[in-house]
Amino acid sequence: MKRLYLTLIRAIALLESTLCYSGLVLCSLMAFAQVLNRYILHLEIMWLGDLTLYLFVPTMILSISLTTRAGAHTSVDVFMDLAFEGRPRARQVYRVGVDALTLGIIVYMLPMGFKLFRHALKYPEYGTLVRWFDTSWIRQTVFLMLVLCALHAAHRVGTGVAALRKAPGAATEVTP
User: Fold this and answer.
1) Among the residues of 71-171, which ranges form H helices?
2) What gap in Å lies between CA 129 and CA 68, rounded to an integer?
3) C-alpha separations of 89 from 39, 82, 154, 167 in Å
């Protein structure tokens, strides 16, 4: 069961990283193409800007869950270095506490995200230049991000507590 769980976590992490990195690279290439078209070829491709925006926004929203997985947005390293210098167990307890607080805030926000998700399903919103293009999926990405953040935060809390229980003398770094 543990093996299946860890395989699922790794698969989610791989899919998440692939979507975020490829979305960012694609957005950068499209923005570069738009600049080339506008200033060198003197052509304006109006829909390219909209498409770039429609891809950029969900990519950045999903990258929030990527940072939750890495624990990058919840830590203040300067404080940790000063407060827990030479005390790895206290540092680990602090990290588990921050991850648990993060999980609590995300769980609090899940009903609001689900409400936004349902509203986006019920009332579609269409693009500005491409009238038939439904952009509601951008708002639906917020709920997906919250679910992924909750999963990653719960995983970090679980692995942090397991690391604390395993080595009572010295805690080790938790990696997803």
Assistant:
1) 77-83, 88-122, 136-166
2) 34
3) 57, 14, 20, 9
Q: Which two tokens stand for residue 106?
A: 């995300």
- By three-state DSSP, how is residue 126 classified? strand
pLDDT along the chain (176 residues), means of 10: 88 90 91 86 79 85 84 66 79 86 92 91 77 78 90 91 76 51
Do the beta carbons of residue 150 and residue 106 sit within 8 Å? yes
pLDDT of 175:
52
Q: Give the long-range contacts of residues 131-135, CB within 8 A, separation 24 or more.
A: 133/54, 135/54
Instruction: Note the pTM of the prediction, 2 decimals.
Output: 0.75
Within 123-135, residue ranges assigned H as helices are none
Structure tokens, 60? 């950045």
